[in-house]
Amino acid sequence: MTDLTVEVYDTTLRDGAQQEGMNLSVADKMAIAPLLDELGVGVIEGGWPGAVPKDTEFFALAGKELTFRHAQLAAFGMTRRAGATAAADPQVRALLDSEAPIITLVCKADIRHAERALRVSPDENLAMIEETFAFLTGEGRRVIMDAEHFFDGYRHDAEYSLRTLQAAVAGGADVLCLCDTNGGMLPDDVSEIVAAVGQRLDTPLGMHAHNDSGCAVANSMAAVAAGATHVQGCVNGYGERTGNADLVAVVANLEIKRGIVALKGDGLVESTRIAHAISEITNIAPFARQPYVGASAFAHKAGLHASAIRVDPDLYQHTQPEKVGNGLRMLVSDMAGRASIELKGKELGFDLAGQNELLGRVTDRVKHAEAAGYTFDAADASFELLLRSELGENPAFWDVETWRVRVASKPGDPTDADAEAVVKMRAGGERMVAVGEGNGPVNALDHALRTALAGVYPEIEEFELTDFKVRIMEASHGTDAVTRVLITTVHQETGELWRTVGVGPNVIEASWEALADSLVYGLLKAGIDRR
Ligand SMILES: CC(=O)SCCNC(=O)CCNC(=O)[C@H](O)C(C)(C)COP(=O)(O)OP(=O)(O)OC[C@H]1O[C@@H](n2cnc3c(N)ncnc32)[C@H](O)[C@@H]1OP(=O)(O)O
Ligand SMILES: CC(=O)C(=O)O
Protein backbone atom coordinates (compact mmCIF):
# COMPACT_ATOMS: atom_id res chain seq x y z
CA MET A 1 0.00 0.00 0.00
CA THR A 2 1.11 3.58 -0.67
CA ASP A 3 0.39 6.53 1.63
CA LEU A 4 -2.24 7.72 -0.81
CA THR A 5 -5.86 7.34 0.21
CA VAL A 6 -8.90 7.90 -1.93
CA GLU A 7 -12.36 8.66 -0.59
CA VAL A 8 -14.90 6.20 -1.95
CA TYR A 9 -18.32 7.72 -2.47
CA ASP A 10 -21.12 5.34 -3.34
CA THR A 11 -24.12 6.64 -5.28
CA THR A 12 -25.97 3.35 -5.78
CA LEU A 13 -28.98 4.66 -3.87
CA ARG A 14 -29.18 7.84 -5.94
CA ASP A 15 -27.57 7.60 -9.41
CA GLY A 16 -27.83 3.78 -9.34
CA ALA A 17 -31.56 4.14 -8.75
CA GLN A 18 -31.73 6.25 -11.93
CA GLN A 19 -31.16 3.04 -13.93
CA GLU A 20 -33.95 1.99 -16.25
CA GLY A 21 -36.04 -0.72 -14.58
CA MET A 22 -34.62 -0.14 -11.08
CA ASN A 23 -37.13 0.83 -8.46
CA LEU A 24 -35.76 0.86 -4.94
CA SER A 25 -38.21 1.00 -2.07
CA VAL A 26 -37.29 2.59 1.25
CA ALA A 27 -36.89 -0.93 2.64
CA ASP A 28 -34.52 -1.80 -0.25
CA LYS A 29 -32.40 1.26 0.53
CA MET A 30 -32.40 0.40 4.23
CA ALA A 31 -31.13 -3.08 3.30
CA ILE A 32 -28.49 -1.91 0.80
CA ALA A 33 -26.94 0.83 2.94
CA PRO A 34 -25.53 -1.54 5.61
CA LEU A 35 -24.02 -3.69 2.85
CA LEU A 36 -22.25 -0.64 1.44
CA ASP A 37 -20.97 0.15 4.92
CA GLU A 38 -19.76 -3.44 5.24
CA LEU A 39 -17.91 -3.03 1.96
CA GLY A 40 -16.18 -0.06 3.55
CA VAL A 41 -17.18 2.92 1.43
CA GLY A 42 -16.61 6.30 3.06
CA VAL A 43 -19.81 7.95 1.87
CA ILE A 44 -23.25 6.58 1.03
CA GLU A 45 -25.34 8.95 -1.04
CA GLY A 46 -28.85 8.06 0.05
CA GLY A 47 -30.88 9.99 -2.51
CA TRP A 48 -32.44 13.37 -3.07
CA PRO A 49 -34.55 14.40 -0.07
CA GLY A 50 -37.17 16.97 -0.89
CA ALA A 51 -37.38 15.84 -4.51
CA VAL A 52 -38.13 12.14 -4.22
CA PRO A 53 -40.54 11.35 -1.35
CA LYS A 54 -39.05 7.88 -0.82
CA ASP A 55 -35.65 9.51 -0.34
CA THR A 56 -36.99 11.95 2.23
CA GLU A 57 -38.43 8.98 4.09
CA PHE A 58 -35.17 7.05 3.75
CA PHE A 59 -33.14 9.81 5.43
CA ALA A 60 -35.68 10.09 8.24
CA LEU A 61 -35.61 6.34 8.86
CA ALA A 62 -31.86 5.86 8.34
CA GLY A 63 -31.14 8.64 10.85
CA LYS A 64 -33.12 6.73 13.46
CA GLU A 65 -32.35 3.12 12.63
CA LEU A 66 -28.98 2.79 10.90
CA THR A 67 -25.59 2.99 12.53
CA PHE A 68 -22.59 2.70 10.27
CA ARG A 69 -19.14 1.47 11.13
CA HIS A 70 -17.40 3.25 8.27
CA ALA A 71 -19.70 5.36 6.15
CA GLN A 72 -21.42 8.71 6.47
CA LEU A 73 -24.63 9.56 4.69
CA ALA A 74 -24.76 12.21 1.97
CA ALA A 75 -27.91 13.92 0.76
CA PHE A 76 -27.92 14.95 -2.90
CA GLY A 77 -29.61 18.05 -4.25
CA MET A 78 -29.20 21.05 -6.50
CA THR A 79 -28.17 24.65 -6.04
CA ARG A 80 -30.82 27.21 -5.21
CA ARG A 81 -33.28 28.22 -7.87
CA ALA A 82 -32.52 31.35 -9.90
CA GLY A 83 -33.63 34.63 -8.36
CA ALA A 84 -34.26 33.24 -4.86
CA THR A 85 -32.12 32.92 -1.75
CA ALA A 86 -30.66 29.60 -0.71
CA ALA A 87 -32.20 29.95 2.75
CA ALA A 88 -35.69 30.36 1.26
CA ASP A 89 -35.38 27.54 -1.29
CA PRO A 90 -37.47 24.57 -0.15
CA GLN A 91 -35.19 22.11 -2.00
CA VAL A 92 -32.16 23.45 -0.14
CA ARG A 93 -34.07 23.36 3.15
CA ALA A 94 -34.97 19.74 2.55
CA LEU A 95 -31.27 18.93 2.30
CA LEU A 96 -30.69 20.40 5.75
CA ASP A 97 -33.80 18.70 7.11
CA SER A 98 -32.44 15.31 6.03
CA GLU A 99 -29.82 15.78 8.76
CA ALA A 100 -27.24 14.11 6.55
CA PRO A 101 -23.77 15.21 7.65
CA ILE A 102 -22.71 15.54 4.02
CA ILE A 103 -24.57 17.39 1.29
CA THR A 104 -23.67 17.03 -2.36
CA LEU A 105 -24.79 19.77 -4.68
CA VAL A 106 -25.14 19.22 -8.41
CA CYS A 107 -24.00 22.44 -10.12
CA LYS A 108 -24.02 23.42 -13.75
CA ALA A 109 -20.35 23.47 -14.75
CA ASP A 110 -20.86 23.95 -18.47
CA ILE A 111 -21.78 27.44 -19.65
CA ARG A 112 -24.14 26.01 -22.25
CA HIS A 113 -26.13 24.29 -19.51
CA ALA A 114 -26.30 27.47 -17.45
CA GLU A 115 -27.59 29.43 -20.42
CA ARG A 116 -29.75 26.84 -22.15
CA ALA A 117 -30.93 24.39 -19.48
CA LEU A 118 -31.12 26.74 -16.47
CA ARG A 119 -31.82 29.76 -18.67
CA VAL A 120 -29.81 32.04 -16.37
CA SER A 121 -26.86 34.33 -17.00
CA PRO A 122 -23.37 32.87 -16.46
CA ASP A 123 -22.96 35.14 -13.42
CA GLU A 124 -26.27 34.12 -11.87
CA ASN A 125 -25.23 30.47 -12.15
CA LEU A 126 -21.99 31.31 -10.32
CA ALA A 127 -23.96 33.14 -7.65
CA MET A 128 -26.36 30.20 -7.28
CA ILE A 129 -23.38 27.93 -6.67
CA GLU A 130 -21.44 30.13 -4.27
CA GLU A 131 -24.46 31.18 -2.21
CA THR A 132 -25.84 27.66 -1.82
CA PHE A 133 -22.45 26.36 -0.69
CA ALA A 134 -21.98 29.27 1.68
CA PHE A 135 -25.43 28.75 3.19
CA LEU A 136 -24.99 25.00 3.72
CA THR A 137 -21.41 25.15 4.99
CA GLY A 138 -22.56 27.97 7.28
CA GLU A 139 -25.02 25.44 8.73
CA GLY A 140 -22.08 23.20 9.61
CA ARG A 141 -22.43 20.63 6.84
CA ARG A 142 -19.64 19.18 4.77
CA VAL A 143 -20.57 20.08 1.21
CA ILE A 144 -19.32 18.36 -1.95
CA MET A 145 -19.68 19.77 -5.44
CA ASP A 146 -20.87 17.50 -8.24
CA ALA A 147 -19.70 19.63 -11.18
CA GLU A 148 -22.19 18.39 -13.76
CA HIS A 149 -20.96 18.21 -17.38
CA PHE A 150 -17.59 19.48 -16.22
CA PHE A 151 -15.50 17.73 -18.88
CA ASP A 152 -17.70 18.70 -21.83
CA GLY A 153 -17.94 22.21 -20.41
CA TYR A 154 -14.17 22.44 -19.99
CA ARG A 155 -13.62 21.44 -23.62
CA HIS A 156 -16.08 24.14 -24.71
CA ASP A 157 -15.11 26.99 -22.35
CA ALA A 158 -12.45 25.98 -19.83
CA GLU A 159 -12.34 29.31 -18.03
CA TYR A 160 -16.04 29.34 -17.28
CA SER A 161 -16.03 25.75 -16.04
CA LEU A 162 -13.11 26.61 -13.76
CA ARG A 163 -15.02 29.61 -12.44
CA THR A 164 -17.88 27.32 -11.38
CA LEU A 165 -15.37 25.34 -9.32
CA GLN A 166 -13.97 28.55 -7.85
CA ALA A 167 -17.48 29.65 -6.91
CA ALA A 168 -17.97 26.41 -4.99
CA VAL A 169 -14.59 26.83 -3.29
CA ALA A 170 -15.55 30.38 -2.32
CA GLY A 171 -18.70 28.94 -0.70
CA GLY A 172 -16.64 26.40 1.24
CA ALA A 173 -16.81 23.25 -0.95
CA ASP A 174 -14.83 20.39 0.52
CA VAL A 175 -14.43 18.33 -2.67
CA LEU A 176 -14.86 19.31 -6.31
CA CYS A 177 -16.14 16.20 -8.02
CA LEU A 178 -15.74 16.53 -11.78
CA CYS A 179 -18.57 14.74 -13.55
CA ASP A 180 -18.49 13.13 -16.96
CA THR A 181 -22.26 13.37 -16.99
CA ASN A 182 -22.70 12.29 -20.62
CA GLY A 183 -20.12 9.53 -20.16
CA GLY A 184 -18.31 10.17 -23.42
CA MET A 185 -14.80 10.94 -22.18
CA LEU A 186 -11.80 8.73 -22.82
CA PRO A 187 -9.05 8.15 -20.25
CA ASP A 188 -6.54 10.49 -21.88
CA ASP A 189 -9.12 13.32 -21.90
CA VAL A 190 -9.75 12.73 -18.20
CA SER A 191 -6.03 12.61 -17.34
CA GLU A 192 -5.32 15.84 -19.16
CA ILE A 193 -8.26 17.77 -17.71
CA VAL A 194 -7.95 16.54 -14.12
CA ALA A 195 -4.22 17.32 -14.13
CA ALA A 196 -4.90 20.80 -15.57
CA VAL A 197 -7.56 21.56 -12.94
CA GLY A 198 -5.21 20.30 -10.21
CA GLN A 199 -2.67 22.90 -11.35
CA ARG A 200 -5.20 25.67 -10.80
CA LEU A 201 -6.98 24.69 -7.58
CA ASP A 202 -5.95 23.26 -4.22
CA THR A 203 -9.31 21.81 -3.19
CA PRO A 204 -9.43 17.99 -3.46
CA LEU A 205 -10.77 16.75 -6.78
CA GLY A 206 -13.12 13.86 -7.38
CA MET A 207 -14.39 11.88 -10.37
CA HIS A 208 -17.93 10.84 -11.23
CA ALA A 209 -17.84 8.77 -14.43
CA HIS A 210 -20.66 7.43 -16.55
CA ASN A 211 -20.04 4.48 -18.82
CA ASP A 212 -21.41 5.62 -22.17
CA SER A 213 -18.04 5.18 -23.88
CA GLY A 214 -17.39 1.96 -21.95
CA CYS A 215 -14.61 3.75 -20.05
CA ALA A 216 -16.15 4.64 -16.69
CA VAL A 217 -13.81 2.47 -14.62
CA ALA A 218 -10.80 3.43 -16.75
CA ASN A 219 -11.75 7.09 -16.49
CA SER A 220 -12.01 6.83 -12.69
CA MET A 221 -8.56 5.23 -12.58
CA ALA A 222 -7.17 7.91 -14.92
CA ALA A 223 -8.58 10.64 -12.69
CA VAL A 224 -6.91 9.18 -9.61
CA ALA A 225 -3.63 8.81 -11.48
CA ALA A 226 -3.93 12.49 -12.42
CA GLY A 227 -4.50 13.57 -8.83
CA ALA A 228 -8.15 12.99 -7.88
CA THR A 229 -8.59 11.75 -4.31
CA HIS A 230 -12.34 11.06 -4.33
CA VAL A 231 -14.16 8.62 -6.62
CA GLN A 232 -17.85 8.12 -7.08
CA GLY A 233 -19.59 5.10 -8.52
CA CYS A 234 -22.24 2.46 -8.03
CA VAL A 235 -21.96 -1.14 -6.98
CA ASN A 236 -22.45 -3.40 -10.01
CA GLY A 237 -22.13 -0.35 -12.29
CA TYR A 238 -25.79 0.58 -11.90
CA GLY A 239 -26.89 4.00 -13.07
CA GLU A 240 -28.56 6.20 -15.61
CA ARG A 241 -28.32 4.92 -19.25
CA THR A 242 -25.26 2.65 -19.45
CA GLY A 243 -24.52 3.13 -15.79
CA ASN A 244 -21.87 4.64 -13.56
CA ALA A 245 -18.37 3.38 -12.88
CA ASP A 246 -18.63 -0.01 -11.22
CA LEU A 247 -17.43 0.91 -7.76
CA VAL A 248 -16.24 -2.57 -6.87
CA ALA A 249 -13.99 -2.70 -9.95
CA VAL A 250 -12.69 0.79 -9.16
CA VAL A 251 -11.81 -0.02 -5.54
CA ALA A 252 -10.34 -3.40 -6.46
CA ASN A 253 -8.16 -1.70 -9.08
CA LEU A 254 -7.11 1.00 -6.64
CA GLU A 255 -6.28 -1.38 -3.82
CA ILE A 256 -4.95 -4.42 -5.69
CA LYS A 257 -3.29 -2.79 -8.70
CA ARG A 258 -2.18 0.51 -7.25
CA GLY A 259 -1.80 -0.19 -3.54
CA ILE A 260 -4.00 2.80 -2.72
CA VAL A 261 -6.13 2.66 0.42
CA ALA A 262 -9.69 3.12 -0.77
CA LEU A 263 -12.04 1.14 1.46
CA LYS A 264 -12.23 1.51 5.21
CA GLY A 265 -11.68 -1.94 6.71
CA ASP A 266 -11.27 -5.28 4.94
CA GLY A 267 -14.47 -5.26 2.92
CA LEU A 268 -12.75 -5.98 -0.39
CA VAL A 269 -12.51 -9.69 0.42
CA GLU A 270 -16.28 -9.69 0.89
CA SER A 271 -17.01 -7.75 -2.28
CA THR A 272 -18.31 -10.67 -4.35
CA ARG A 273 -20.84 -11.62 -1.67
CA ILE A 274 -21.83 -7.99 -1.13
CA ALA A 275 -22.23 -7.25 -4.85
CA HIS A 276 -24.43 -10.33 -5.25
CA ALA A 277 -26.44 -9.56 -2.12
CA ILE A 278 -27.15 -6.10 -3.54
CA SER A 279 -28.25 -7.72 -6.83
CA GLU A 280 -30.77 -9.76 -4.88
CA ILE A 281 -32.22 -6.60 -3.36
CA THR A 282 -32.30 -4.64 -6.61
CA ASN A 283 -33.77 -7.75 -8.25
CA ILE A 284 -31.39 -7.37 -11.18
CA ALA A 285 -29.61 -10.60 -12.05
CA PRO A 286 -25.86 -10.37 -11.46
CA PHE A 287 -23.81 -9.93 -14.62
CA ALA A 288 -21.68 -13.08 -14.89
CA ARG A 289 -18.86 -11.35 -16.80
CA GLN A 290 -18.60 -8.46 -14.34
CA PRO A 291 -14.93 -7.79 -13.57
CA TYR A 292 -13.68 -9.20 -10.26
CA VAL A 293 -17.02 -10.29 -8.78
CA GLY A 294 -18.86 -11.91 -11.73
CA ALA A 295 -19.49 -15.64 -11.64
CA SER A 296 -17.34 -15.98 -14.78
CA ALA A 297 -14.61 -13.57 -13.65
CA PHE A 298 -12.30 -16.45 -12.75
CA ALA A 299 -13.97 -19.29 -14.73
CA HIS A 300 -11.67 -21.03 -17.20
CA LYS A 301 -12.90 -22.97 -20.19
CA ALA A 302 -10.03 -23.52 -22.62
CA GLY A 303 -7.92 -26.65 -22.24
CA LEU A 304 -4.66 -24.74 -22.73
CA HIS A 305 -5.54 -22.41 -19.90
CA ALA A 306 -6.31 -25.34 -17.63
CA SER A 307 -3.01 -27.06 -18.38
CA ALA A 308 -1.10 -23.94 -17.29
CA ILE A 309 -3.42 -23.28 -14.33
CA ARG A 310 -2.65 -26.80 -13.09
CA VAL A 311 0.95 -25.60 -12.70
CA ASP A 312 0.14 -22.18 -11.30
CA PRO A 313 -3.28 -20.44 -11.36
CA ASP A 314 -1.57 -17.04 -11.65
CA LEU A 315 -0.43 -17.93 -15.16
CA TYR A 316 -3.96 -17.28 -16.40
CA GLN A 317 -5.33 -14.85 -13.80
CA HIS A 318 -4.78 -11.13 -13.46
CA THR A 319 -5.15 -11.40 -9.68
CA GLN A 320 -6.12 -13.94 -7.03
CA PRO A 321 -9.91 -14.33 -6.88
CA GLU A 322 -9.77 -14.71 -3.08
CA LYS A 323 -8.80 -11.03 -2.79
CA VAL A 324 -12.34 -10.11 -3.80
CA GLY A 325 -14.04 -13.14 -2.29
CA ASN A 326 -14.49 -14.85 -5.64
CA GLY A 327 -13.18 -18.27 -6.63
CA LEU A 328 -11.50 -20.03 -9.49
CA ARG A 329 -13.78 -22.36 -11.44
CA MET A 330 -12.99 -24.82 -14.18
CA LEU A 331 -15.54 -25.21 -16.94
CA VAL A 332 -15.86 -28.47 -18.79
CA SER A 333 -16.81 -28.33 -22.45
CA ASP A 334 -15.65 -29.42 -25.90
CA MET A 335 -12.70 -27.07 -25.38
CA ALA A 336 -11.51 -29.09 -22.40
CA GLY A 337 -8.30 -31.08 -22.27
CA ARG A 338 -7.18 -33.63 -19.68
CA ALA A 339 -5.94 -30.85 -17.42
CA SER A 340 -9.40 -29.24 -17.42
CA ILE A 341 -10.96 -32.55 -16.39
CA GLU A 342 -8.36 -33.11 -13.69
CA LEU A 343 -8.93 -29.65 -12.20
CA LYS A 344 -12.70 -29.88 -12.47
CA GLY A 345 -12.51 -33.28 -10.80
CA LYS A 346 -10.49 -31.73 -7.98
CA GLU A 347 -13.08 -28.97 -7.61
CA LEU A 348 -15.73 -31.70 -7.27
CA GLY A 349 -13.66 -33.69 -4.76
CA PHE A 350 -12.07 -36.35 -7.04
CA ASP A 351 -8.30 -36.81 -7.14
CA LEU A 352 -7.63 -37.71 -10.77
CA ALA A 353 -3.95 -36.71 -10.86
CA GLY A 354 -1.83 -39.14 -12.85
CA GLN A 355 -4.84 -41.09 -14.16
CA ASN A 356 -4.08 -40.25 -17.75
CA GLU A 357 -6.04 -43.03 -19.37
CA LEU A 358 -9.17 -42.17 -17.38
CA LEU A 359 -8.72 -38.46 -18.02
CA GLY A 360 -8.42 -39.17 -21.76
CA ARG A 361 -11.63 -41.25 -21.72
CA VAL A 362 -13.60 -38.60 -19.86
CA THR A 363 -12.26 -35.87 -22.16
CA ASP A 364 -13.36 -37.87 -25.21
CA ARG A 365 -16.82 -38.50 -23.76
CA VAL A 366 -17.23 -34.82 -22.97
CA LYS A 367 -16.18 -33.76 -26.47
CA HIS A 368 -18.51 -36.27 -28.16
CA ALA A 369 -21.40 -35.39 -25.88
CA GLU A 370 -20.90 -31.67 -26.50
CA ALA A 371 -20.83 -32.31 -30.25
CA ALA A 372 -24.19 -34.06 -29.83
CA GLY A 373 -25.67 -31.01 -28.06
CA TYR A 374 -24.81 -31.39 -24.35
CA THR A 375 -23.35 -28.44 -22.50
CA PHE A 376 -21.47 -29.26 -19.34
CA ASP A 377 -20.26 -25.80 -18.44
CA ALA A 378 -23.90 -25.04 -17.62
CA ALA A 379 -24.55 -28.41 -15.97
CA ASP A 380 -21.91 -29.37 -13.44
CA ALA A 381 -24.11 -32.11 -11.96
CA SER A 382 -24.37 -33.94 -15.28
CA PHE A 383 -20.61 -33.73 -15.67
CA GLU A 384 -20.14 -35.23 -12.23
CA LEU A 385 -22.47 -38.11 -13.14
CA LEU A 386 -20.50 -38.70 -16.34
CA LEU A 387 -17.24 -38.70 -14.38
CA ARG A 388 -18.66 -41.03 -11.74
CA SER A 389 -19.87 -43.42 -14.42
CA GLU A 390 -16.29 -43.64 -15.79
CA LEU A 391 -15.05 -44.18 -12.23
CA GLY A 392 -17.69 -46.88 -11.67
CA GLU A 393 -19.18 -44.81 -8.83
CA ASN A 394 -22.61 -44.24 -10.23
CA PRO A 395 -25.09 -46.52 -8.51
CA ALA A 396 -28.18 -47.50 -10.51
CA PHE A 397 -30.86 -46.29 -8.11
CA TRP A 398 -33.56 -47.76 -10.34
CA ASP A 399 -34.11 -49.56 -13.66
CA VAL A 400 -36.61 -48.14 -16.06
CA GLU A 401 -38.67 -50.53 -18.14
CA THR A 402 -40.68 -48.02 -20.16
CA TRP A 403 -42.24 -44.62 -19.92
CA ARG A 404 -44.77 -42.89 -22.11
CA VAL A 405 -46.65 -39.63 -22.22
CA ARG A 406 -50.02 -38.70 -23.70
CA VAL A 407 -51.08 -35.14 -24.32
CA ALA A 408 -54.61 -34.06 -25.11
CA SER A 409 -55.79 -30.54 -25.63
CA LYS A 410 -58.85 -29.51 -23.66
CA PRO A 411 -61.67 -28.47 -25.94
CA GLY A 412 -62.54 -24.85 -25.27
CA ASP A 413 -59.30 -24.20 -23.41
CA PRO A 414 -56.46 -24.44 -25.95
CA THR A 415 -53.98 -22.83 -23.53
CA ASP A 416 -54.13 -25.66 -21.02
CA ALA A 417 -52.98 -29.07 -22.20
CA ASP A 418 -54.04 -32.14 -20.29
CA ALA A 419 -51.04 -34.47 -20.01
CA GLU A 420 -50.66 -37.91 -18.49
CA ALA A 421 -47.48 -39.98 -18.10
CA VAL A 422 -47.00 -43.63 -17.18
CA VAL A 423 -43.66 -44.85 -15.86
CA LYS A 424 -42.83 -48.53 -15.34
CA MET A 425 -39.67 -49.16 -13.32
CA ARG A 426 -38.00 -51.27 -10.64
CA ALA A 427 -36.64 -49.74 -7.46
CA GLY A 428 -36.06 -51.07 -3.94
CA GLY A 429 -36.63 -54.61 -5.23
CA GLU A 430 -40.16 -53.82 -6.39
CA ARG A 431 -41.78 -53.22 -9.74
CA MET A 432 -43.84 -50.06 -9.90
CA VAL A 433 -46.23 -48.62 -12.38
CA ALA A 434 -46.94 -44.98 -11.68
CA VAL A 435 -49.15 -42.47 -13.37
CA GLY A 436 -48.57 -38.73 -13.27
CA GLU A 437 -50.76 -35.91 -14.48
CA GLY A 438 -49.64 -32.43 -15.36
CA ASN A 439 -50.32 -29.28 -17.32
CA GLY A 440 -47.76 -30.42 -19.90
CA PRO A 441 -45.89 -33.60 -20.79
CA VAL A 442 -42.74 -32.79 -18.78
CA ASN A 443 -44.75 -31.86 -15.72
CA ALA A 444 -46.69 -35.15 -16.01
CA LEU A 445 -43.47 -37.12 -16.43
CA ASP A 446 -41.94 -35.43 -13.39
CA HIS A 447 -44.99 -36.35 -11.31
CA ALA A 448 -45.01 -39.95 -12.51
CA LEU A 449 -41.31 -40.40 -11.80
CA ARG A 450 -41.62 -38.92 -8.32
CA THR A 451 -44.74 -40.98 -7.57
CA ALA A 452 -42.92 -44.15 -8.59
CA LEU A 453 -39.91 -43.37 -6.44
CA ALA A 454 -41.46 -41.67 -3.42
CA GLY A 455 -41.88 -44.88 -1.43
CA VAL A 456 -38.31 -46.05 -1.90
CA TYR A 457 -36.53 -42.71 -1.97
CA PRO A 458 -38.69 -40.24 0.03
CA GLU A 459 -35.70 -37.84 0.01
CA ILE A 460 -36.63 -36.72 -3.51
CA GLU A 461 -39.57 -34.79 -2.09
CA GLU A 462 -37.00 -32.23 -0.97
CA PHE A 463 -35.76 -31.71 -4.55
CA GLU A 464 -37.58 -28.84 -6.18
CA LEU A 465 -37.32 -28.20 -9.89
CA THR A 466 -36.83 -24.44 -10.08
CA ASP A 467 -35.87 -23.74 -13.67
CA PHE A 468 -36.37 -25.47 -16.96
CA LYS A 469 -34.77 -24.21 -20.18
CA VAL A 470 -35.29 -25.67 -23.63
CA ARG A 471 -33.12 -24.92 -26.61
CA ILE A 472 -33.51 -26.30 -30.09
CA MET A 473 -30.10 -27.10 -31.51
CA GLU A 474 -29.45 -27.09 -35.27
CA ALA A 475 -32.63 -25.16 -35.90
CA SER A 476 -32.24 -25.57 -39.67
CA HIS A 477 -33.35 -29.19 -39.25
CA GLY A 478 -36.83 -28.01 -38.32
CA THR A 479 -38.71 -30.74 -36.42
CA ASP A 480 -35.70 -33.09 -36.76
CA ALA A 481 -33.64 -30.72 -34.65
CA VAL A 482 -31.99 -31.94 -31.48
CA THR A 483 -33.47 -30.53 -28.29
CA ARG A 484 -31.45 -29.62 -25.23
CA VAL A 485 -33.03 -29.24 -21.82
CA LEU A 486 -31.32 -27.69 -18.81
CA ILE A 487 -32.92 -28.22 -15.44
CA THR A 488 -32.08 -26.45 -12.20
CA THR A 489 -33.00 -28.23 -9.00
CA VAL A 490 -32.79 -26.90 -5.47
CA HIS A 491 -32.74 -28.87 -2.24
CA GLN A 492 -35.52 -27.23 -0.25
CA GLU A 493 -33.84 -27.71 3.11
CA THR A 494 -30.16 -27.09 2.38
CA GLY A 495 -30.63 -24.62 -0.49
CA GLU A 496 -28.04 -26.52 -2.54
CA LEU A 497 -28.59 -25.99 -6.25
CA TRP A 498 -27.57 -28.22 -9.16
CA ARG A 499 -28.06 -28.28 -12.91
CA THR A 500 -28.48 -31.20 -15.23
CA VAL A 501 -28.69 -31.43 -18.98
CA GLY A 502 -30.54 -33.77 -21.29
CA VAL A 503 -30.41 -34.03 -25.06
CA GLY A 504 -32.80 -35.89 -27.32
CA PRO A 505 -34.67 -35.85 -30.58
CA ASN A 506 -37.60 -34.24 -28.78
CA VAL A 507 -38.22 -32.15 -25.70
CA ILE A 508 -39.75 -35.03 -23.76
CA GLU A 509 -36.81 -37.38 -24.16
CA ALA A 510 -34.35 -34.60 -23.36
CA SER A 511 -36.40 -33.66 -20.31
CA TRP A 512 -36.59 -37.25 -19.10
CA GLU A 513 -32.80 -37.51 -19.10
CA ALA A 514 -32.30 -34.18 -17.32
CA LEU A 515 -35.04 -35.00 -14.79
CA ALA A 516 -33.75 -38.47 -13.99
CA ASP A 517 -30.17 -37.19 -13.66
CA SER A 518 -31.34 -34.43 -11.37
CA LEU A 519 -32.87 -36.97 -8.98
CA VAL A 520 -29.83 -39.28 -9.18
CA TYR A 521 -27.48 -36.41 -8.42
CA GLY A 522 -29.64 -35.23 -5.52
CA LEU A 523 -29.65 -38.72 -3.99
CA LEU A 524 -25.88 -39.05 -4.39
CA LYS A 525 -25.30 -35.71 -2.70
CA ALA A 526 -27.64 -36.72 0.11
CA GLY A 527 -25.41 -39.76 0.66
CA ILE A 528 -28.18 -42.24 -0.22
CA ASP A 529 -27.24 -45.74 -1.41
CA ARG A 530 -29.19 -47.86 -3.84
CA ARG A 531 -32.12 -49.38 -2.00
C1 LIG B 1 -26.86 14.43 -13.68
C2 LIG B 1 -27.86 13.94 -12.74
O1 LIG B 1 -28.15 12.78 -12.80
S1 LIG B 1 -28.44 14.97 -11.59
C3 LIG B 1 -29.69 14.06 -10.74
C4 LIG B 1 -30.96 14.02 -11.51
N1 LIG B 1 -31.97 13.39 -10.72
C5 LIG B 1 -33.24 13.74 -10.83
O2 LIG B 1 -33.61 14.60 -11.61
C6 LIG B 1 -34.21 12.95 -9.98
C7 LIG B 1 -35.03 13.84 -9.06
N2 LIG B 1 -35.63 14.96 -9.75
C8 LIG B 1 -36.89 15.41 -9.45
O3 LIG B 1 -37.60 14.83 -8.64
C9 LIG B 1 -37.35 16.65 -10.14
O4 LIG B 1 -36.71 16.80 -11.39
C10 LIG B 1 -37.08 17.91 -9.24
C11 LIG B 1 -37.98 17.79 -7.99
C12 LIG B 1 -35.65 18.00 -8.82
C13 LIG B 1 -37.44 19.18 -9.99
O5 LIG B 1 -38.73 19.04 -10.46
P1 LIG B 1 -39.48 20.29 -11.17
O6 LIG B 1 -39.48 21.40 -10.21
O7 LIG B 1 -40.79 19.76 -11.62
O8 LIG B 1 -38.53 20.70 -12.37
P2 LIG B 1 -38.09 19.89 -13.65
O9 LIG B 1 -37.65 18.54 -13.27
O10 LIG B 1 -39.10 19.95 -14.72
O11 LIG B 1 -36.84 20.74 -14.12
C14 LIG B 1 -35.70 20.89 -13.33
C15 LIG B 1 -35.59 22.32 -12.85
O12 LIG B 1 -34.41 22.41 -12.04
C16 LIG B 1 -33.53 23.40 -12.61
N3 LIG B 1 -32.19 22.94 -12.35
C17 LIG B 1 -31.55 21.91 -12.95
N4 LIG B 1 -30.33 21.79 -12.45
C18 LIG B 1 -30.18 22.75 -11.50
C19 LIG B 1 -29.14 23.13 -10.66
N5 LIG B 1 -27.97 22.48 -10.68
N6 LIG B 1 -29.34 24.15 -9.81
C20 LIG B 1 -30.52 24.79 -9.78
N7 LIG B 1 -31.55 24.48 -10.56
C21 LIG B 1 -31.38 23.48 -11.42
C22 LIG B 1 -33.92 23.44 -14.06
O13 LIG B 1 -33.55 24.65 -14.66
C23 LIG B 1 -35.43 23.31 -13.98
O14 LIG B 1 -35.94 24.55 -13.58
P3 LIG B 1 -37.40 25.09 -14.06
O15 LIG B 1 -38.38 24.23 -13.32
O16 LIG B 1 -37.39 26.49 -13.61
O17 LIG B 1 -37.46 24.89 -15.52
C1 LIG C 1 -24.12 14.39 -10.78
C2 LIG C 1 -24.32 13.32 -11.74
O1 LIG C 1 -24.97 12.36 -11.45
C3 LIG C 1 -23.74 13.45 -13.05
O2 LIG C 1 -23.25 14.52 -13.40
O3 LIG C 1 -23.78 12.46 -13.78
TrEMBL record:
Q: Which residues form a coiled coil?
A: none
| Pfam families the record matches | HCS_D2 (PF22617), HMGL-like (PF00682), LeuA_dimer (PF08502)
Q: Which residues form the Pyruvate carboxyltransferase domain?
A: 6-269
The biological process GO terms on file are:
isoleucine biosynthetic process; L-leucine biosynthetic process
CDD domains of this UniProt entry? DRE_TIM_LeuA3
Q: Which InterPro entries match?
A: 2-isopropylmalate_synth_dimer, AIPM/Hcit_synth_CS, Aldolase_TIM, Citramal_synthase, LeuA/HCS_post-cat, LeuA_allosteric_dom_sf, PYR_CT
| Pathway given in the UniProt record | Amino-acid biosynthesis; L-isoleucine biosynthesis; 2-oxobutanoate from pyruvate: step 1/3
The record's section on Gene3D superfamilies has: 1.10.238.260, 3.30.160.270, Aldolase class I
Q: Does the keyword Amino-acid biosynthesis apply?
A: yes
Task: Tell me one GO molecular function of this protein.
Answer: (R)-citramalate synthase activity
Q: Which reaction does it catalyse?
A: pyruvate + acetyl-CoA + H2O = (3R)-citramalate + CoA + H(+)
Which class of enzymes does this protein belong to?
Answer: transferase
Output the SMART domains linked to this UniProt entry.
LeuA_dimer (SM00917)
Query: What protein am I looking at?
Result: Citramalate synthase
Q: Which organism is it from?
A: Demequina activiva
The record lists the lineage as: Bacteria, Bacillati, Actinomycetota, Actinomycetes, Micrococcales
